[in-house]
Amino acid sequence: MISASAWSDIELLWEFQQMHHEPHPCSVGIGLGSHDLGVADVAADLYHRGLIPLIVFTGATSRTTQARMPRGEAEHYRERALDLGVPSAAVLVEPHARNTGENIEFSRQLLAERGVVVSSALIVSKPYEERRAYATACKVWPDIEIVSASARMTLAEYVDSIQDVHLVIDMLVGAQQRLLIYPEKGFMTRQEVPEVVTAAYERLCAAGFTSRLMSAE
Questions:
Q1: Phi/psi at 61 (nearest 5 deg)?
Q2: What are the CA-CA distances from residue 75 to residues 31, 46, 59, 93, 217 (Å)?
Q3: Cα–Cα distances in Å, from 43 out to 32, 38, 131, 195?
Q4: How far apart are CA 10 and CA 136, in angstroms?
Q5: pLDDT tens-digit profile of 105-121?
Q6: How far apart are CA 71 and CA 69, in angstroms?
């Protein structure tokens, strides 16, 4: 059971991680690989709405996805998008990236190899990783406009869709930790984090939601 106070802290992190951008037409959509096929659903919807002419799905596998996406996250995303009516010619697959920085950098390289001119990108991620993805993309690809997109749903709705509340909370806490430590490593741009959000993050760590935290090293 998740206590009411812990849930309140989780809601604070959930809200902070979302950028609340309004999607608008961009050169390309980049779907960041993960355990959540909903990312492919959002990218397909953006394509059908005419906001992106091309989608890059990027991602290999991780400890979370190796069993459920054995052909690689990007490939499973591509299959989902095709099932949703996106034409094969509008989908590129980048199958090697194993972290968010590589997602962006390898996608940029693939698009350059294909001769695609990019001035803006809709970065499609899980809802609780919008800010992390945005800060990473701004660092790795600073000369284009970055717009964040994800499934529009509440935390409760998202947890219900994933059917694993502890996975969602641990991933959310891990995303928050990276916002705090990655700028110093040069992996992302610095984001101003309100004290109330940092306090919520620290309480959740103390409560044991730590399986996705990186070591102090």
A1: -135, 165
A2: 11, 19, 8, 7, 33
A3: 10, 9, 17, 33
A4: 22
A5: 999 999 999 999 999 99
A6: 6
Which has the closest alpha carbon to 73: 48, 46, 93? 93
Judge whether residue 162 has pLDDT over 90: no
Q: Is 0.85 surpassed by the pTM of this model?
A: yes
44 neighbors 143 (Cβ within 8 angstroms): no
Residue with tokens 């990276």: 178
Lowest mean pLDDT among 1-5, 82-86, 143-147: 1-5
As a whole number of angstroms, the distance between CA 215 and CA 30 comes to 29
Q: In this structure, what are the phi and psi dihedrals at residue 214, rounded to the nearest 5 degrees? A: -85, 155
* Sole residue written with tokens 């996106």: 86
* pLDDT averaged over every residue in the chain: 94
Q: How does pLDDT run across 16-44, given as a tens digit for each residue? A: 999 999 999 999 999 999 888 999 999 99
